[in-house]
Design brief:
Blueprint lengths: L7 E4 L13 E2 L8 E9 L4 H13 L9 H5 L11 E10 L11 H8 L8 E7 L16 H4 L22 H19 L6 E2 L30 E2 L6 E2 L1 E2 L5 E2 L4 E3 L4 E3 L3
Parallel strand pairs: 3-4, 3-5
Antiparallel strand pairs: 1-5, 2-6, 7-8, 9-10, 11-12
Helix pairs in contact: 1-5
């Protein structure tokens, strides 16, 4: 079973996160990149359903759909100068034999894996590892434990212990991975070099999604993700619809126009 240790480990254009109080500010920016290709490298064994959940999310980012949709969530990034890229799904690479072993994989190992997709302008690679692969320094200095990165589909490590929500695709790990990938992609296009939009103290980074941590719907507060939609057939919670009617739960994004966290519902 995919767990939250199978979340996004690395995005090739990732840069240090910066912030500057009191409001989100703008610094030097590169030219806009209208197109963004996202490659997915699955390291270890993933079921076809797990891979499809993540791949369909990426394809849904630029698909035409009525709100609340994945595409309408992504359009918030266009409010940032340099954001709003049109996203396309690139290569899907399967490394089921785990070419570098079960780990623990170092950051350098993850970079080596990411290079397998090749280097192309306007493309990034997300490396996802299966539950039985160890990655350093997950659960130490980076999120990698379900109680940290799979909430609200898993009990949190700290704070109010409300019952976890039912994941919209029936897999805590896959749906938790989508939340993490969504946040990282939003940060990548709005703050690709760590010197674009940021908030607060430069010693700890908050970006478009992480500035709104724990907020998924209106009325959210610590321990409560906010008002969400419910699938009557499964009882799953979601706030966005993607290709083929697939449902997702996506984090709120900081709206630079209103200086507030923007939710879909």
């Amino acid at each position: 079973m995919l767990t939250c240790t199978s979340r996004i480990l690395y995005i090739s254009c990732w840069a240090p996160l910066l912030r500057w109080p009191p409001a989100v500010a703008s610094a030097a920016w590169p030219k806009s990149r209208p197109c963004l290709t996202v490659n997915l490298l699955f390291y270890g064994r993933f079921t076809p359903a797990q891979r499809a959940t993540v791949a369909d999310f990426v394809q849904s980012l630029s698909a035409a759909a009525a709100p609340p949709s994945v595409a309408s969530w992504w359009r918030t990034t266009s409010l940032y100068r340099g954001g709003g890229a049109r996203v396309a799904l690139g290569r899907q690479i399967l490394d089921e034999r785990m070419s570098l072993g079960r780990g623990p994989l170092s950051p350098g190992d993850v970079e080596t894996l990411a290079r397998a997709a090749g280097h192309h302008w306007g493309a990034i690679t997300a490396v996802l590892t299966a539950a039985d692969v160890a990655v350093a320094p997950f659960c130490v200095s980076r999120c990698g434990c379900p109680g940290q990165c799979a909430w609200p589909f898993h009990q949190p490590l700290h704070g109010p212990q409300a019952p976890p929500l039912v994941p919209p695709n029936g897999d805590v790990g896959a749906d938790g991975t989508v939340i993490s990938l969504a946040a990282l992609l939003a940060g990548t296009v709005t703050n690709p070099y760590g010197d674009g939009y940021y908030q607060g103290d430069a010693g700890a980074g908050l970006e478009a999604a992480t500035a709104c941590a724990g907020i998924f719907g209106s009325g959210a507060y610590p321990g409560y993700p906010g008002k969400l939609l419910t699938d009557p057939a499964t009882g799953a919670s979601y706030n966005a619809v993607g290709l083929g009617g697939r449902k997702y739960l996506l984090p709120a994004l900081w709206d630079p126009m209103t200086s507030q966290c923007k939710t879909l519902v």
